[in-house]
Structure formats: structure tokens, C-alpha cells
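Example 9 (inverse folding). The structure is encoded as follows.
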């Protein structure tokens, strides 16, 4: 089992900083039993100046609030106070770079009726790129992403991740690195925990919003592509279009930008190092570490302001 905490680890919970080992809870909540909760996946990076910077902190905590409200989870906090608490947990845990995980969870209630309050916890732990750093062999999942008519698909809801876990297990059991899921209409959707882009004839394409999680990294990739003068189209992508692409990559906070070697054993023809994805990967790496030293980008200021 991975070591997420030890006796020195702090978490933030409901306004207090507690030792993780003492932050106990009962076993009668809708989050544990029914997956009724909302969370975020955020990364703090050590920048080139040695400072710790939470990448797109505001965007992530704003999305947490949106997710909670979409699910009717009472939400008692401001983005500002949660960003401050996250920096404090990082500091108390001596994490210069880490994954930051806020979770909004429900109080004791075994029925389906609404709650008057929610709890929040913020945890941090060191995390390598979630899908590794090698090009991925990807498996087309037999699972579809949740039907947006049955779920608030744009919310980062705990229960949605049953679908992600099933798809990931299936891909790994078949000898692949990660899954790719289609939406209920059979269009390309996303990975269990990342969005997807494909390159064709010098352009990037990514599934339109509606049946996917609106990824913050996805939005960052679109910004970077704009700065680099690469055209991006958001549209419904058929499996055939994806398999005929020149190259493709996944992106997400935990996964960062990671190239895909093949889908169901069919290799993409373009070498990763020549792909648009590789340029975006390098630019993303620089952006999160605030490394603008070699002035690779013409719109440097635009990038700096985008790193909120
Ligand atoms: N899709 C899903 C299903 C995810 O869980 C994630 C990770 N949060 C993403 C996409 C990527 O989102 P982000 O870039 O905001 O991390």
C-alpha cells in the first residue's frame, strides 16, 4: 500500500490543521456509502525560483465549489481561504511539490435527503506523473463514460470514479497501460482521469464539452496551443478519426501531458518527439514551473497571467 501519510502528516479539516492520523470520521456518511461527494486533484510545483506554487489554484477551487453546488452539497468556504489552507498544509508537511487533494464530504445521513452541512478535508502527498513518463499503450474500454442525463458529468463527483476504476482495471487486466472511454453516443470521450487530444495534419482536436470532465489541463493545453500558434478544434471525434490521427496525448493535473504510443495495438505514425504533443508537453512543463527563461514563447506575459 502506498504511503500517503505518517505520524507527522497534517491535513486541514473544517478550519483546523490536524494530524492525519487523528483526523478520524464515523462510517455513516453518504460519501462513503453512496459516492456522494466532490473532490479536486491539484498540483503544487516547485518553481524555478524555488518557491512552491499551486498551479491554477483558483480554477481548481472554483471547480470544487461548482461541483459541490451541482450535487446540492452545502458549501461553506471561499476559494481564497481554501487556497491559503492548501499552502499551509504544504508548508506543515514540508512539501515543496505535491499533489493537493480537497474532498467535500457529507455528514452522517444514511437516507437520500439533503444535508444541512458538509465537511472539507485537504490532504497533500508527493506524487510522480500519474501515468508514468513513457508513451502509453491504450485500450478502448468496454465501459462508456457516465450518461450526462444520469449524472452531473461536469462535476468532479466521487461516485463517477467507480466508472474510472472499472475502466482502468479492465485496461490493465488486458495488459495495457490505460483505458480510453467513449461517450454514450460512441464518440471519443476521455481517459479514466485525463482528457485526450489528437493531432491531424498539423492541427489539434479534442472532444467538445458536454460528455467529459472540463479539464483544467485541457484548457491550459488550448491556451498553450494558442500561444504557440497551433490551431485547436473542439468537436465530436469518432473512433475512426482518432485511429487515423498522426499522434495523440492524454492530459490532466495528475498525468500532466503524456503521449500515447498506440490504441488497441495500433501505433500512431508520427514519432512523439516530432509531434505537437511533445511541444505542448515541454511548454506545460515550463509553465507549471514558471520557467520562462529562454523566452520560447512570443506571448510570455499571456502565459504568466494564465498561471493564476
Ligand atoms: N477527466 C477526468 C475523468 C478526470 O478525472 C480528470 C482529472 N481531474 C481529467 C479529465 C483532467 O482534469 P484536470 O486537467 O482538471 O486535472
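The amino acid assigned to each position is listed next.
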Amino acid at each position: 500500500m502506498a504511503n500517503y501519510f505518517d505520524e507527522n502528516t497534517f491535513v486541514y479539516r473544517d478550519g483546523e490543521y490536524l494530524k492525519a492520523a487523528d483526523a478520524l470520521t464515523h462510517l455513516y456518511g453518504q460519501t462513503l456509502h453512496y459516492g456522494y461527494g466532490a473532490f479536486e486533484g491539484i498540483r503544487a510545483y516547485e518553481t524555478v525560483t524555488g518557491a512552491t506554487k499551486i498551479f491554477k489554484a483558483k480554477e481548481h477551487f472554483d471547480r470544487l465549489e461548482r461541483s459541490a453546488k451541482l450535487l446540492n452539497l452545502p458549501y461553506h468556504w471561499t476559494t481564497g481561504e481554501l487556497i491559503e489552507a492548501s499552502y499551509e498544509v504544504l508548508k506543515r508537511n514540508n512539501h515543496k511539490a505535491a499533489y493537493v487533494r480537497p474532498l467535500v464530504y457529507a455528514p452522517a445521513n444514511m437516507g437520500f435527503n439533503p444535508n444541512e452541512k458538509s465537511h472539507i478535508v485537504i490532504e497533500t502527498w508527493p506524487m510522480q506523473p500519474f501515468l508514468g513518463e513513457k508513451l502509453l499503450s491504450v485500450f478502448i474500454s468496454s465501459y462508456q463514460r457516465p450518461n450526462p442525463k444520469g449524472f452531473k458529468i461536469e462535476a468532479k463527483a466521487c461516485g463517477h470514479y467507480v466508472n474510472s476504476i472499472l475502466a482502468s482495471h479492465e485496461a490493465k487486466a488486458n495488459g495495457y497501460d490505460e483505458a480510453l472511454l467513449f461517450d454514450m453516443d460512441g464518440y471519443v470521450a476521455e481517459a479514466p482521469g485525463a482528457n485526450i487530444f489528437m493531432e491531424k495534419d498539423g492541427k489539434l482536436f479534442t472532444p467538445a464539452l458536454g460528455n467529459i470532465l472540463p479539464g483544467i489541463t485541457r484548457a491550459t493545453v488550448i491556451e498553450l496551443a494558442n500561444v504557440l500558434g497551433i490551431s485547436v478544434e473542439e468537436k465530436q471525434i469518432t473512433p475512426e478519426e482518432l485511429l487515423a490521427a498522426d499522434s495523440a496525448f492524454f492530459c490532466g493535473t495528475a498525468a500532466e501531458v503524456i503521449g500515447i504510443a498506440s490504441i488497441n495495438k495500433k501505433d500512431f505514425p508520427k514519432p512523439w518527439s516530432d509531434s505537437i504533443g511533445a511541444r505542448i508537453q515541454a511548454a506545460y512543463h515550463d509553465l507549471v514551473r514558471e520557467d520562462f527563461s529562454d523566452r520560447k514563447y512570443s506571448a510570455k506575459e499571456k502565459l504568466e497571467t494564465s498561471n493564476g
